[in-house]
Amino acid sequence: MISSILAFDPLLVDDLTAGDILVVVVKAVLALVLLLVSVLFMVWFERKAISDLQNRIGPNRAGPFGLFQTVADGLKFFMKEDSLPDRADRRIFILAPYLTAIPAFLVFAVIPIGGDFTDGKRGEITVFGHQTLMQLADPPVGVLFILAMSSIAVYGIMLAGWSSGSKYPLLGSVRASAQMVSYEAALGLSVVTVVLVSGTLSTNGIVDAQSSSWIPFIDWNIVVTGVVPFIIFLIAATAELNRPPFDLVEAEQELVGGFNTEYSAFRFALFFLAEFMNTVTMSAIIVTLFLGGPNGPVPIGPGWLWGTIWFMVKLFGFLFMFVWFRATLPRVRYDQLMMLGWKVLIPLALGWFLLVTAFRVGDDEGWNPFVVAAVGVVVMAVGYGLLSAAQWAARRNRELEGEVGI
Predict the structure, then answer these.
(1) 368: how many CB neighbours lie within 10 A of its CB?
(2) pTM, whole model, 2 decimals?
(3) Residue 8 banded pLDDT, cuts 50, 70, 90
(4) What single string gives the DSSP state of each residue in 148-198?
(5) Rounded to whole angstroms, how far apart are CA atoms 280 and 241?
(6) Smallest Cα–Cα separation from 356: which of 232, 229, 225?
(7) Per-residue pLDDT at 189
(8) Cα 94 to chain center, whole Å?
(9) 249 and 242 in contact (C-beta within 8 Å)?
(10) Is the confidence at residue 404, as pLDDT, over 60?
(11) Alpha-carbon radius of gyration of the chain
């Protein structure tokens, strides 16, 4: 049963021994510690980087370079009084922060964070004589697991706003639900494109499919899928993380503090922790799906060590990018957010997925790729024209009904 769930890890294929279980426990502890340390570093790094970009000093009191400021803030949250609003639904109010934090760790468990993928090694390493992967689990439906967990996380935000018994948290949770629904489809279609070219739902299999060429970078999915799914995924992921410029869920000028206005102490710290855990996890997903995961050149030394180094370098690049977005981009209006999701990203993601599918079918059937590309471009142009006509007709009907400007 366990081998069918955690299938592709060679550690769990045959009968389990005490040593196998010990290795799994050690991997679970290391994954949790690595994620928590990454979150502590990310909180400090975001404050420090934004202060530098805004010509401020930033944290510099707790420890060298202010490195212990996050730990000091965590201790403060633990020691503060934990209040519970009179009109709140007690059970849901307490449960909601955990629903937001736990899925972030579960998603991180299926991400390969290292290993040697050169020469068909599939990222396998040897730990105390046991062959295993540098990820906690590699289920055959890893991509579906990631999508399911990312969908569950929004329930925590929605329930937190509803159970608070206050209008501002409720408005923030409604915004979060609408934002998630609007961008989940575009994100899912870009992931389906990756699954199509990789031929597997396993995260380890997707990374392995990006290591088939001896030329670095040429078989990464960002190249194979034609860049567009990567850009769509990046924008949709930023919206699902509620990060700037899509942070309307916590828009201070409009909603006080958003869905977590009524939370304090440890429960507020869980929401704070979950936000940065999701940022680290989503960056790891982007690296896995589009940038080859731990893949990279191995100039000297063990391949598994270079796999971890390349993964961390790529992960840090995306973490800096999210901080850069926050420091430089203004918050979009809510109607602009909805328009970008429904009228731009979803049609573009669907059209590009069908185009990539046509190329794959044409490759199997021996069709001329230039003819396939020409027909695909014409079909996408016709689809864009029909969509534009529908939007124009809807806008004209609203003008006739006098809704514009109200």
Answers:
(1) 9
(2) 0.88
(3) low
(4) HHHHHHHHHHHHHHHHTT-HHHHHHHHHHHHHHHHHHHHHHHHHHHHHHHH
(5) 10
(6) 225
(7) 92
(8) 25
(9) yes
(10) no
(11) 23
